[in-house]
Design a protein that fits this description.
The chain is of the alpha/beta class. The protein has three domains: 78 residues, Beta Barrel (OB fold (Dihydrolipoamide Acetyltransferase, E2P)), CATH 2.40.50; 147 residues, P-loop containing nucleotide triphosphate hydrolases (Rossmann fold, 3-Layer(aba) Sandwich); 65 residues, Probable gtpase engc, domain 3 (Ribonucleotide Reductase Protein R1, domain 1, Orthogonal Bundle). 30% of the residues lie in helices and 24% in strands. The protein has nine helices and 13 strands. A five-stranded mixed barrel has the order 1-2-3-5-4. Strands 6-7 form a two-stranded antiparallel sheet. Helix 2 crosses helix 6. The two termini are 41 Å apart.
Length: 330
């Protein structure tokens, strides 16, 4: 029959999780058939965030090591302490868990091409996890001047808010690399997110002091590189914790992210406390403190529009989820 052991998913590549046990052994694994088919196969932080029944990077799992099979079998996914969740990129009203059981999320954006609208979504998804969140601006060595670096960092910090630190990293500034490394305390796990080409793998190589992740060639004309990370892998940082190098994620659909929105737009959340009605949607209600702040120039109209759009998206997702539940009960 075989023996059973517990381990941690340290790499996802082509659908077969690599699981490491406490004694350092590693097993390429596949999921038990009944686990994949079950809607309750994953022990989730939320009520349904693990509906797929498949393990993700960072999961603690129970393995069966069969005597007559070339792969270990994941029989059970142990309860998660934390999840990074987005809406499934298909049109289905279901969640997709990207990573589990981590302590910090680092959002990486290239300093010379910061996408504020994407950053808003990244902040919401990261804040929703309840983990510590840091924004790291990469490729600062490509900036034209110190003034450009300071200006962009200031804009990003204003968006991120007072509770989220914004760091700038440059390949030719060891102190900037050390500032990021100090976040990775021994015994902790950090998830590194960002779109393709922002330099996530290069950042990990800098943190490790050697080339542990493959990076694409960089074009001399604009400093942009090709996407190379295709798997999700947990990389140990010497003298520190582990970093999960995530492939560039294009779609960032929100999944029940009310808490994350309030955290990412904390300035608007604070102003909203002054609205006349507790359930104010900041549309046409009388006594809306948020709309008054926008009209007075205290809140940027574009930022307010993003806030309302994200809230509407989350509300719509809740409705679709309720409709899906109702259909399942019929």
């Amino acid at each position: 029959m075989g023996v059973r052991v517990e381990g941690e998913v340290v790499k996802l590549d082509r659908g077969f999780p690599l699981v490491r046990t406490a004694d350092g052994r590693q097993f390429r694994s596949e999921h038990a058939t009944n686990l994949v088919k079950s809607t309750k196969g994953t022990a989730s932080v939320g009520t349904e965030a693990g509906e797929s029944g498949r393990a993700v990077i960072g999961d603690r799992v129970q393995l069966l090591l069969p005597n007559d099979h070339d792969k270990a079998i994941i029989e059970r996914i142990l309860p998660r302490t934390r999840e990074l969740v987005r809406k499934d990129p298909t049109e289905r009203a279901v969640p997709q868990v990207l990573a589990a059981n981590f302590d910090r999320v680092i959002i990486a954006q290239a300093l010379g091409e910061v996408n504020m609208r994407r950053l808003e979504r990244e902040l919401v998804l990261a804040c929703e996890t309840g983990a510590a969140v840091t924004v790291v601006l990469t490729k600062a060595d490509l900036a034209e001047s110190e003034q450009e670096v300071a200006s962009i960092r200031s804009q990003v910090q204003a968006l991120a808010g007072p509770d989220t630190e914004t760091l700038v990293i440059s390949a030719d500034a060891p102190a900037s690399v050390e500032a990021v490394r100090e976040l990775l305390a021994e015994g902790t796990t950090t998830v590194l997110v960002g779109r393709s080409g922002v330099g996530k793998s290069s950042l990990i190589n800098l943190l490790c002091g050697e080339d542990v992740q493959e990076t694409g060639d960089v074009r001399a004309v604009d400093g942009k590189g090709r996407h190379t990370t295709v798997s999700r892998e947990m990389v140990p940082v010497p003298g520190g914790g582990r970093v999960v190098d995530m492939p560039g994620v294009r779609g960032l659909g929100l999944w029940e992210a009310d808490a994350g929105i309030e955290a990412a737009f904390s300035d608007i959340a604070v102003i909203a406390e002054g609205c006349r009605f507790r359930d104010c949607k900041h549309e046409k209600e009388p006594g809306c403190a948020v709309r008054a702040a926008v009209e007075a120039g205290e809140v940027d109209p574009a930022r307010f529009a993003s806030y309302r759009g994200l809230k509407a998206e989350t509300s719509k997702m809740k409705e679709r989820r309720e409709q899906a539940r109702w259909r399942r009960k019929r």
